[in-house]
Design a protein that fits this description.
The chain has 534 residues and is of the alpha/beta class. It is built from 16 helices and 19 strands. The strands form seven sheets. It has a five-stranded mixed beta sheet with strand order 2-1-3-4-5, with helices on both faces. Strands 12-18-19 form a three-stranded mixed beta sheet. The termini are far apart.
């Protein structure tokens, strides 16, 4: 009986699999075993999409299984394609030595036998796996550089589609022969994304409150049963929603560390077909997040000193008082705090009642007036703000909207031309296959009739899909070029801020007040309002 040989097959990513298998390495191993009459194939170990660089020996279950089988003397030889199939770190040289001590020969098709009996053998193995690690680092650098260039060009670099998008064929093929994909907006999810940004920017909600609001409304998330704060945070941080995909957002520094957004690598040009929110809205969301993060980092008196006055973002928009963080005592300069209380009582008829009394109080010891009713202070400030907003008038966003429509139209026109080229190519393919059918019937073709029929069916199905997509684009272009529709849409986004302020809830009012006002100073009988803008 010959030596019992088991093979180890491994690829690092799912893209390297062929229908979930590793047939090339298996075929090479079979040929190698067949040339050695004293070897008998005994079985194989397979690792699908497992990195030998990022994972240690202990983290790879298959290697632990091999070691356990070696201890039980179940085989004599371990064969793999190259040493890098075993590992891409220096520590893997010790794994080979452990197998050798158990009497297992370790062979590779490209490097021959990996011995560890002699000191020089151990040194060579160590150098070999050290080189494997270096190659992995170089490959990683090349991949990252390639991804950066793809992102700069506005292309999708792989992975799952962010919420609000789906993956569709791009019509391009990679250097490895794989069909590349691109992102396409999913309308219902895009509406949810816009809602998340509106709640964050215009109503000042944090991640947790937004998640609760989405769950309250029964809006379905992407994967989990309910919205989580982390999912909301991911959406508010992702620049793809303003049409600028980015990479280099995290680095590995003894763990994953998020870089400042100014260090990210962005697309050099806005990708119009990816825009869900405007660049201005996305930037506002980042400014709000960063301001709150800075406030959270500060504490106590330091927070009041740094952020109690002059901040354009409220620390929170919850609560019933709209001027908290803006209103200050005119005597001692202390911020006015929430001094509200609830009154609860029971009527003679046994009915329980409750009422809210809102008030601002000064926490300092200045000897002046220390309490101001909510209605007194807010009505005075709101009246001045409404008169200011009335003077400003409705904000005309027509030009911004028209520019957005123009960018979207250009993207659709570009896609339409690509679809027309694809339709023409598919028609030519169909004509070619149809002309080949008579030859196949006479037995003069390299294709069988069944194969031609299958190819024709595939091409005709692809042609129908392209035509359907082209028709959708044609209708979309008609809507975009309809001047009446464009005018209505532009008018719809014009905003009457006075009306919105009057009808908005406390959260919305707080956000707008912090954008407009720098400080409200209150003394007994006098209220001074300092605007950021005039």
């Amino acid at each position: 009986m010959g030596k019992r040989v088991r093979t180890l097959l491994r690829v690092s990513s799912r893209q390297q699999l062929h229908d979930g298998d590793i047939p090339i390495q298996r075929a090479e191993a079979a040929d190698y075993i067949a040339k050695r009459p004293d070897w008998v194939f005994d079985g194989e170990y397979m690792e699908k999409a497992v990195s030998a660089y990022k994972n240690s020996v202990e983290e790879r279950e298959v290697l632990q299984e091999i070691l356990a089988d070696a201890e039980e003397k179940k085989f004599d030889v371990l064969l793999t394609y190259m040493s890098d199939r075993i590992g891409r770190q220096e520590e893997y040289s010790f794994y080979v030595a452990a197998l050798n001590r158990l009497g297992i020969e370790v062979w590779t098709i490209k490097d021959g036998q990996l011995k560890t009996q002699e000191h020089v053998d151990k040194l060579l193995n160590y150098i070999r796996f050290w080189q494997n690690e270096g190659e992995s680092k170089k490959t990683g650098m090349r991949v990252r550089d390639t991804q950066k260039e793809m992102v700069k060009a506005g292309k999708f670099v792989g992975g799952r589609a962010p919420f609000g998008y789906r993956l569709v064929p791009s019509g391009m093929v990679s250097n490895h022969g794989r069909l590349l994909k691109k992102l396409e907006i999913v309308a219902p999810q895009a509406d949810t994304v816009r809602m998340i940004y509106r709640l964050a920017v215009h109503e000042g909600m944090g991640y947790e409150r937004i998640a609760k609001e989405l769950n309250r409304q029964g809006i379905p998330p992407a994967a989990s049963a309910q919205w989580k704060a982390a999912a909301v945070r991911g959406i508010l941080l992702n620049p793809v929603y303003m049409g600028y995909p980015a990479i280099n957002r995290r680095v590995n520094r003894n763990g994953s560390v998020r870089l400042d957004r100014r260090e990210w690598v962005y697309a050099e040009k806005q990708v119009a077909e990816l825009v869900i929110v405007s660049k201005r809205v996305w930037e506002q969301a980042q400014e709000i997040r960063e301001a709150r993060k800075a406030k959270t980092a500060a504490s106590g008196e330091q927070a009041a000193r740094l952020y109690g006055e002059g901040s354009h973002v409220p620390f929170t928009t919850s609560g019933r008082l709209a001027l908290t963080g803006l209103a200050f005592c005119g005597n001692c300069g202390s911020p006015l705090r929430n001094g509200s209380y609830w009154n609860r009582w029971t009527t003679k008829a046994g009915e329980r009642k409750i009422s809210f009394t809102g008030r601002y109080i000064c926490g300092g010891k200045c000897g002046g007036r220390s309490s101001y009713p909510q209605d007194y202070l807010e009505n005075a400030v709101f009246g001045v703000v409404e008169r200011f907003l009335e003077r400003v008038g409705p904000l005309d966003m027509a030009e911004e909207w028209k520019e957005r429509i123009r960018r979207q139209r250009e993207a659709v026109e570009k896609e339409q031309k690509a679809l027309e080229r694809e339709v023409a190519a598919l028609r030519q393919d169909i004509r070619t296959f149809e002309a080949e059918i008579p030859e196949a019937l006479r037995g003069n073709s390299c294709f069988t009739v069944e194969k031609l029929s299958s190819l024709l069916g595939d091409k005709e199905r692809m042609l129908a899909e392209c035509r359907e997509k082209a028709e959708e684009n044609r209708k979309k272009l008609e809507r975009m070029t309809d001047s009446g529709t464009a005018a209505k849409e532009a008018a719809a986004v014009s905003r009457d801020w006075k009306q919105e302020f009057r009808e908005g809830d406390t959260a919305f009012r707080r956000m707008l007040l912090f954008l407009l006002l720098e400080k409200v100073t209150v003394t007994d009988g006098q209220i001074r309002i300092r605007f950021r803008v005039v």
